[in-house]
Amino acid sequence: MLDLRGRKQYADRAFRSSAASAAALVLLILGLIAITITRRSMPVFREMGLRFFTTTRWAPADSLFGALPFVWGTAFTALIALAIAVPISLGMALFMTQVAPPAVKKPMVYMMDLLAGVPSVVFGLWGVLVLSQYFDLGRSFLTAGIILAIMVIPIITSLSREVIETTPPGDKEGALALGATRWEMIGAAVIPHSAGGLVGAVMLGLGRAMGETIAAALVIGSALGQITLRPLAAGNSMPAVIANEWGEADDLHKSALIALAVTLFVITIVVNLLATGIVQRSMKRGQGL
Predict the structure, then answer these.
(1) Which residue in 38, 66, 117, 235 is deepest, having the highest Cβ count within 10 Å?
(2) Model confidence over 44-54: pLDDT tens digits?
């Protein structure tokens, strides 16, 4: 008996050590990536300083690099994507958890998983061939936003569904027992309980939309220096300009593109950390911790 207990304790220690080593390896790789790209981006920061983030002109031939239009394009397309994706995703999550019978819910969950696994280039080509031509949207912020919305809907839907399912059954049954309709029960019990987790799911979708490269590069239009609120105008984003210009860039130009990658890296990490914190806090509150 003691020998068996000792082996179990040894197995537990080995598992903890393996898990800790894997987590440390991930952090080490992330740190090395951050150090490498930051070091490679320093030439353009020495050349331009903070003007890199405030200048609107991007002219590699003149050694002038302004990231502001690309930061704007990344944020604008991501916001368009969220404006489209959030209502659809939350509606689907509520339908799957509160209305749909198991025979309907299961295929919908499978469909979301399959949609999440479709390569981004497929969505980008569909946007070029269908949205740009047959719907007269052209290659624009709006086209990129629609494509990004389709890509983040599975993420927001799946996370929202998991958060909504943590609502205590007693809260929902209590609301129904007091005479509330199903919609009133959702508004009184489900949404307040799940609010923090839903915000976290939306923010994770935002991080995914901001980091998309190939699909955005195919449909956004690749216009330089374009800062506008017109959705049908052509533009550019940080991932798209990196993908489009890397092959022809010289040393300083590559440093500027890497600086864009550093900027996107920092923004994405911050968004994901905030989203993870909100989701975890919501989960703990739902468990009464």
Answers:
(1) 235
(2) 998 888 888 98
**Which range marks the domain in which residue 22 is found?**
2-50
Check whether residue 132 and residue 275 sit in a common domain.
yes
64 contact partners, CB below 8 Å, separation of at least 6:
48, 55, 57, 58
Looking at the fold, whether 101 and 158 belong to one and the same domain comes out as yes
Q: Could you tell me the pTM of the whole model?
A: 0.84
